Amino acid sequence: MPFIETRDATRLFYKDWGSGPPVVLIHGWPLDADMWEYQQPALTGAGFRTIAYDRRGFGRSDQSWSGYDYDTFADGLKAVLDSLDLQDVTLVGFSMGGGEIARYLARHGGARVARAVLVSAVTPMLAKTPDHPEGVDASVFEGMIDGIERDRPHFWSNFVKSFFGAGLLSSPASSELMAWTGMLAMRASPKATVDCVRAFGGTDFRSDMAAFRVPTLVIHGDADQTVPFDLSGKAAAQAIPGARLEVYEGAPHAIPFTHKDRLTEDLLAFLRA
């Protein structure tokens, strides 16, 4: 299996398919590169070189004890772009993967980046603080951590229902599909799973948003129960000059699965523009 080594010698697994303009797909929590089950083949077949990698601690990448913070994640993304010498790349980040893009641009600049796409992303900030009173209370994230540490498979079996918007007529998902994402989730390090809740739940990306100086597409469902639209998709589009916001009416968090065809079409239209 192919791996890229980061500056602290952590090995990141990646899939590099096709040829053409490069697109890097950054997965969400607590999944891995295989979550792009529908988008990666479609984009590759449409003439793009697609690279999907497992974040440290997830999938087939090394499960280090530490390093589950956004500075380190951004450095991991840098290692992917540098090792493969990718130029004029489009970065596509789902959920916590959107934070990687924001921190990468702020920390390392956008010389290699041509476009960015935020899908159900956690940017610019989820946490409730004195200067962000509309945010999510810390008790929500602590409750998630408690559930994960108590019984991780059981936690996911409940969490996945809101992830997929179970019960929403606009978001049908089979029990088999939800079970498959559970298999991906269980491949992750339990330490990474917990630490990443603190990372995406507590990181403030508001100052990072100014680093988006490339055409940016923001895609979010207005029925997202996992990463609320007003805190994320709507706020991110307002914070990024010239960003285009695509609101999927009635859509939950798991857009790459529940709205896979529409997402692929929107990505291709943006890539070809």
UniProtKB/TrEMBL annotation:
Q: Superkingdom, according to UniProt? A: Bacteria
UniProt-listed InterPro entries = AB_hydrolase (IPR050471), AB_hydrolase_1 (IPR000073), AB_hydrolase_fold (IPR029058), Epox_hydrolase-like (IPR000639)
Q: What EC number(s) would the UniProt record show?
A: 1.11.1.10, 3.1.1.2
Transferase as a keyword of this entry, yes or no, is no
The AB hydrolase-1 domain covers 21-259
Alphabetic keyword roster: Hydrolase, Oxidoreductase, Peroxidase
Annotated Gene Ontology MF terms? arylesterase activity; chloride peroxidase activity
Any keyword Metal-binding? no
What PANTHER family does the record point to? Answer: HYDROLASE, ALPHA/BETA FOLD FAMILY PROTEIN, NON-HEME CHLOROPEROXIDASE-RELATED
Q: Give the UniProt family note.
A: Belongs to the AB hydrolase superfamily. Bacterial non-heme haloperoxidase / perhydrolase family.
What protein is this chain from? Arylesterase (Alpha/beta hydrolase fold), putative haloperoxidase
